[in-house]
Amino acid sequence: MKYTFPPDFVWGAATSSYQIEGATRTGGRGPSIWDTFAARPGAIKDGTNGDVACEHYHHYPHDIALMRSLGLQAYRFSIAWPRIVPGGTGAVEPRGLDFYDRLVDALLAAGIAPWATLYHWDLPQPLEDRGGWPVRATAEAFVPYADAVTRRLGDRVKHWITHNEPWCASTLGYLTGEHAPGRKEPAAALAAAHHLLLSHGLVVPVVRANSPGAKVGITLNLTPATPASPSPLDAEAARRFDGAFNRWFLDPVHGHGYPKDVVADYAAAGIDALAAVRAGDLETIAVATDFLGVNYYTRHIARGGEAGNAPRVVEEPGPDRRTDIGWEVHAESFRALLVRLATEYPPQPLFITENGAATHDGPGADGRIVDTRRVRYLAEHLEAVAAARAAGARVDGYFAWSLMDNFEWAWGYTQRFGLVWVDYATQARVPKDSAHWFRDVIARGGLG
Ligand code: FCB
Predict the structure, then answer these.
(1) pTM of the predicted model, to two decimals?
(2) Into how many domains does the chain fold?
(3) Is 165 considered catalytic here?
(4) What CATH code is carried by the domain that includes residue 420?
(5) Whose CA is nearest to atom 9 of ligand 1?
(6) 95-121 confidence digits (pLDDT tens)
(7) Domain that holds residue 144
(8) Ligand 1, residues 34, 223, 295: which to mutate, most atoms within 8 A of Cβ?
């Protein structure tokens, strides 16, 4: 079978500021919640942080040459708020803007379209000190920051993503405490989610005003839920998971407000999920956008309880069907998700803004990196995109996560998602087999 994509399909790779830049004390950058969190004993699996990471702040010309050698047409990166407004509010740091200015110019000179994400989790620490995302003032502070960035880069950056994965920023940051700032406060997590979405709605018009003709959207991480058995308990567990994880974000950005069944679930647990919502907020959040960014890695197998359940028909996968981070490989759920988005939500272009696999494969004796499992993962997921397109889903582009190995949040450097290997001791970059494979896919415009 041949899987081809239209000639204008966008092929790219993605990264984020804290995960690759390093240089956390350079150019006037202020502290972010990830600097603070990573310093907390036990917060990061290997005790590391993003102080150095891939030193992309210094090596970006080389990294862009690498992107060019892979034939990437687009590069999704994020802008570090603490480089632009180190205090969270107030003075803009020109050296921060200068860095991204140079990056954008170098990308354009290499023929690579810059796709900029305004928030990929590195909140300025001073804003967290004043309450973080659970307070409304943080959403308001996002506006002048986004204004400064889009004023400076809006003439050249023509694709903007307001937020990356507000589920992670709110739930992992403020409910489970696995991510910065490491708080475990259920009510605060819901307020954080609301303010993240609100800030999205607030900045879309700012981006449009400063970047004429640009396309703007939000990126959500969507994890479909599969009931483990046909039992009503498992179906109910799947509904709940899908509601809190996917619909809680999809529905309001599409103008449907927060899903009522999930609001009721929270109420039953004694939580007023709408406590932070003010009149007009839902209209602000429902602002028209040009595309939806979709990050997909895995599905969730939902099980509601043991007693009375029908036997499982969906077994938890063994290690052979998981990537090294433990996430199940399940491309069929990806296809079904994309078709669902096209049928249940207003028609709009979808871009896969992240998809990829963690595998540990490193250089062999000959220096070659044979990451066969990553190639297989990417191929299966691209087949899923092609199948979804054939079924009517309008997917207009695909960004592999990630261009290169990097700081994987609470996992530190223990997980490698890159198409390109990074030797952290020397900062050498070595394209893996998957990088060569992806280059050929792009050159061919699809899977052969
Ligand atoms: C996503 C994040 C990205 C990276 C991948 C593996 O949730 O957006 O930064 O960590 O997971």
Answers:
(1) 0.98
(2) 1
(3) yes
(4) 3.20.20.80
(5) 16
(6) 999 999 999 999 999 999 999 999 999
(7) 3-447
(8) 295
